[in-house]
Write a structure and sequence with these properties.
188 residues; mainly alpha; Arc Repressor Mutant, subunit A; Tetracycline Repressor, domain 2; 9 helices; 76% helix; elongated
Length: 188
């Protein structure tokens, strides 16, 4: 995923849109509010992004870039089996600092029913990337792709449970379950 070079005005618009879309929801935020908070005209917003839908796609891709960089920084060069657990550590840190309203991608998915929407495409790419990362780490650790599937389900479920405050330390609890699954498969 290549980063797009944006003008300073477009950067301001995207930064404001990111904050507002995540905090209030995509449908609750209009282009008038984004333009006003960004200090630009609606014409500038449309000149830079073309449409609110395209801006939503940029917002989700930008958030995905930050998430991926965060995961890679936490996982680093750890051995693959350890890397699988470090993905949970990355999620735990992210949830504590960047995600008080839960997963931006799950939230956006609920608001964007059109499968052709640029935001839905960004969401699908983000979830595929995470699944592929888990499958790659599992394969390099000589563990099954089924285990990677199970870990993805644990990660996604922990994200929702944490954001709803249903389970105290949901991500850490999911990490413990993941450690047990990894250990069980390694001992087969």
């Amino acid at each position: 995923m290549a980063a797009v070079k944006l003008t300073p005005a477009a950067e301001r618009v995207l930064e404001v849109a990111e904050e507002l879309f995540y905090a209030r929801g995509i449908h609750a935020v209009g282009v008038d509010l984004i333009a006003g908070e960004s200090g630009v005209t609606k014409k500038t917003l449309y000149d830079r992004f073309g449409s609110k839908d395209a801006l939503i796609g940029h917002y989700l891709r930008r958030r995905d870039e930050r998430w991926r960089a965060h995961v890679y920084a936490v996982v680093g060069d750890a051995p693959p089996a350890e890397g699988l657990l470090l993905v949970f550590e990355a999620l735990d840190r992210w949830m504590r600092s960047m995600n008080p309203r839960g997963c931006a991608f799950v939230n956006a998915h609920a608001e964007l029913p059109d499968g052709d929407h640029p935001g839905r495409q960004a969401i699908a790419e983000q979830k595929r990337w995470l699944h592929d990362l888990l499958r790659d780490l599992a394969a390099r650790a000589e563990l099954s792709s089924k285990l990677a599937d199970e870990l993805l389900i644990l990660l996604e479920g922990a994200t929702v449970a944490d954001s709803l405050k249903l389970v105290p330390d949901a991500v850490r609890a999911a990490k413990q379950v993941a450690a047990g699954l990894i250990e069980a498969e390694q001992n087969r």
